[in-house]
Design brief:
The complex is a heterodimer of chains A (405) and B (291).
Chain A lengths: L4 H10 L7 E4 L2 H15 L4 E5 L10 E2 L7 E4 L2 H11 L3 E3 L8 E2 L3 E5 L10 E10 L4 E7 L6 H7 L4 E5 L8 H10 L4 H20 L2 E11 L5 E3 L3 E4 L8 H4 L9 H8 L3 E4 L4 E5 L2 H13 L6 E4 L6 H11 L7 E8 L4 H15 L6 E7 L2 H9 L5 E4 L2 H14 L1
Parallel strand pairs in A: 15-17, 17-18, 18-19
Antiparallel strand pairs in A: 1-7, 2-4, 2-7, 3-5, 5-6, 8-9, 8-11, 9-10, 11-12, 11-13, 14-16
Chain B lengths: L10 E4 L4 H13 L3 E5 L7 E2 L2 E4 L2 H8 L3 E4 L3 H13 L4 E4 L6 H11 L5 E3 L5 E4 L3 E4 L8 E8 L3 H12 L4 E6 L10 H9 L6 E7 L4 H11 L6 E6 L23 H10 L3 E2 L6 H10 L1
Parallel strand pairs in B: 1-2, 1-5, 2-4, 5-6, 6-7, 10-11, 10-12, 12-13, 13-14
Antiparallel strand pairs in B: 3-4, 8-9, 8-11
Helix pairs in contact in B: 3-4, 5-9, 6-7, 7-8
The chains are: A alpha+beta (405), B alpha/beta (291).
Protein name (chain A): Succinate--CoA ligase [ADP-forming] subunit beta
Catalytic activity (chain A): GTP + succinate + CoA = succinyl-CoA + GDP + phosphate; succinate + ATP + CoA = succinyl-CoA + ADP + phosphate
Pfam family, one (chain A): ATP-grasp_2
Amino acid sequence: MNLHEYQAKELLKKYGVPVQEGIAVSTPHDAEEAYRQIKTQYGSNFAVVKAQIHAGGRGKGKVRETGINGVKVVKSVDEVCEVSQKILGGTLVTIQTGEAGKVVNKVLIAQDMYYDGPSERKEFYLSILLDRSKGENVIMYSTEGGMDIEEVAHKTPEKIFKEWVYPAGLLQGYQARKIAFNLGLKGDAFKNMVKFVTNLYKAYLGLDASMLEINPLFKASDDKIVAVDCKMNLDDNALMRHPDLAAMRDVAEEDPTEVEAGKHNLNFVKLDGNVGCMVNGAGLAMATMDMIKLSGGEPANFLDVGGTANAQTVEAGFRIIMKDPKVKAILINIFGGIVRCDRVAQGVIDAYKNMGNIEIPIIVRLQGTNAEEAKKLIDESGLKVQSAILLSEAAQLVNKAVAAA
Amino acid sequence: MSILVNKNSKVLVQGFTGTEGTFHASQMIEYGTQLVGGVTPGKGGTSHLDRRVFNTVADCVKETGADVSIIFVPPAFAADAIMEAADAGVGLIVCITEGIPVQDMVKVKNFIEGKNTRLIGPNCPGVITADECKVGIMPGFVFKKGRIGIVSKSGTLTYEAADQVAKAGLGISTAVGIGGDPIIGTPTKEAVELFMNDLETDAIVMIGEIGGGMEAEAAHWIRDNGNQKPVVGFIAGQTAPPGRRMGHAGAIVGGAEDTAAAKMKIMEECGIHVVQSPADIGITMAQLLKK
């Protein structure tokens, strides 16, 4: 599950991680009020308006309708009002959102951290994530903050440091010090950084995050170390023990069809093709998508119906797939193990009848327990459903359907 | 021989009296698996499916001599169950549970390291040695006895492969579902290594999916050890968009190296017979063995 910047920052503060403070609002009027508060509290006319969407590249990205950037420095009430008006409700297109962009429903009015002071300001990069190959958490960090880290990794890999954390414990003191030394810090900034990373790692574990990225990780001119931005993903499997975090989910950021599918316990990912599919098992579902492509079609979705493919789940699946007008055929691919194929076939027939007239060709491939009986049921149902037993037969039927469409 | 489990394996079930545990334990008994007992904390001393129920894995091992455990415990308690089994000295632990928090598995992996135990899974269909022993949730009849080993990250795709192998006139020695999570006990390479050293396995089907580097690691190992047995490979997710999780917690393209195309290329370079279509697994294996 993804979180917004403002949500992630609220969570970090609970773990004693200093952040660039701010107030999240959804109207220009509230933005003004938030600006006044920030101004009083931090004694500066400068503030930052930051669009809150689940995607990076907001600073360089532009709101389609008004052409304004997704992050903007402001220095008066009027400006806050104007900028938030131009961002809120607009569609922000960034390098990560793709052409479609994302509608901005909230902006964060944040304090300005780039004030003048005795020491030099610096931007670093730091993230914590799972290293799958080692089965350990790793802290990745660099002196090159504020920019695209993948580019840094590509061009100057020597500027990226990694620190693996021993699985049975927390980040050790010497590791936190090593990070602060490698970032070239001294004095108060050094001490603040040690505290920052130690607490950040506690937050990562405590929140069951799967990825936590601070970019830029900022050293202010008074040696304060703060998270100016924060990108946080939570482990979906761990949400069961964090109901408070689960409640922070923003479904407006997700594909509405995927949200709908989730309500039916269907594992669905929307794609861009013309052949829909419904499969039991994630691996077989991906394999089926690949087969659709090899048969001349393009998969319109990933859909794993799980272990119980009955009339209700099949019908829900049909309805979700057919919301997309581009879908020209649907392939149902079920390998019946514990689930009997004849039951699934009956489910398909019932769902088909419930739905009334389905215009597009449906191809049902059922293999495994009672596959022959299932094929007979479908063939004798009188419905416009084609049946197959072998995967290769199903591929040929998809090929024909795509050619005819 | 075969690998991991055989007719002499003594299996215990953790989460024995739950719905899933009960259903699949009966199926395993029906298949002929030596299921010697089960564990449900608090129900020790009772009996279930004509087997004794124990409070702890240690008690069950002591009384029954079980050397394999299969886990059907809900995700919140599964990590604990794995560690309990490892601590009781169970040699092979098969964890079926899907949805274990990844930080729990970080702890588990560390906990079992150095112990004399092997973990299969989690989030897997289990292990089956055809006609001898089923420790999992797979439909037993699909796995006709033969000399092909299967290692796979996915459940139904394993059944699909086994079925195609049978239809091509061949059969299965052992099939191992290693699981689709980011952290699993036995990576592809280790399962492949077991098959390469198994006298009852002549060839291997290796099925992977997008995400992580396990298939590349296995491919390099196969090449470096002289491609001793033919391997047919398939990677699911050629059409998966980057950055999206495709059902399995571990099935997500994170960079340029863990796409299906990148993995297939490495596997081909290492002498594995990679099929583009999942429909060609059985037929390709049959053609290879005819040569």
